[in-house]
Amino acid sequence: MTTETYIEAGSHIPSRLKELWIWFEAVYEWDWGDPGMLAELIRNEPLPPEFQMATADIVAGVRKRHKYGKSAIPAQERMQVARFAMELSELGEEFRSDSKEIHRVSDKTKNEPIETIHATQTAIRNKINSLAMSAGVSVETCKNLRRDLQARINRWPVV
C-alpha cells in the first residue's frame, strides 16, 4: 500500500504524517470502531515510532474508542468523507485568495477572477452537497468530520 492512495491533498500536512498516512488512517478507523486496517498493518508492517504510544494505549485499554458508539457512517467511509471534505475545503481556500491559480484559470477560461472564484465556490458547495447526500449525512456533518480530521492533523505528532 502506498501513502499516495490515501491522501491526495494536504499541502499543510507535515511530510512525515503524509508518509505515515495509512497508519494515521488506521488509528482513526480504530477510534471509530473498525480495528481491521490497524490489525492488518500491525501484522504486516513495522510499527513506526510515532504510533508506538497510541498502539500501546490501545493494547493496554487506555485509549478508548469514540464515546458515541455507533456512527451514522462506518469508520472507513467516515475517513473518506472527512478527507474529501478537507480536500474540497483546501481547494476553496486556494480560490479565495489572490493566488496565481485564480489568474491562471481565469486567463484560460477567459473569465474575470471574481467569476472564477464564484464558479469554483459554487462547484465546491455542490460537491459537498453531493458528498453529504451520498454518505447519507448532512452538509454540517461533512464539515464537522473535516474539522475533526483537521484537528487530529494539527495535533501531530500526537496521534
Tell me what the structure shows.
The chain is an all-alpha fold and 159 residues long. It has a domain of 80 residues. 65% of the residues lie in helices and 0% in strands. It is built from 8 helices and no strands. Helix 5 runs antiparallel to helix 7 and helix 6 packs across helix 7.
In short:
With 159 residues, the protein is an all-alpha fold. Helices cover 65% and strands 0% of the residues. The protein has helices at residues 15-19, 21-31, 36-44, 52-60, 75-94, 100-109, 113-135, 139-154.
Outline the fold blueprint:
Blueprint: H1 15-19, H2 21-31, H3 36-44, H4 52-60, H5 75-94, H6 100-109, H7 113-135, H8 139-154
What key phrases describe this protein's structure?
159 residues, mainly alpha, 8 helices, 0% strand, elongated, disordered N terminus
Helix content: 55-70%
Low-confidence stretches: 1-6
Overall pLDDT score: 88
Q: How far is the first residue's CA from the last residue's CA?
A: 20 Å
Oligomer: single chain
Beta-sheet strand percentage?
Answer: under 5%
Strand elements, count? 0
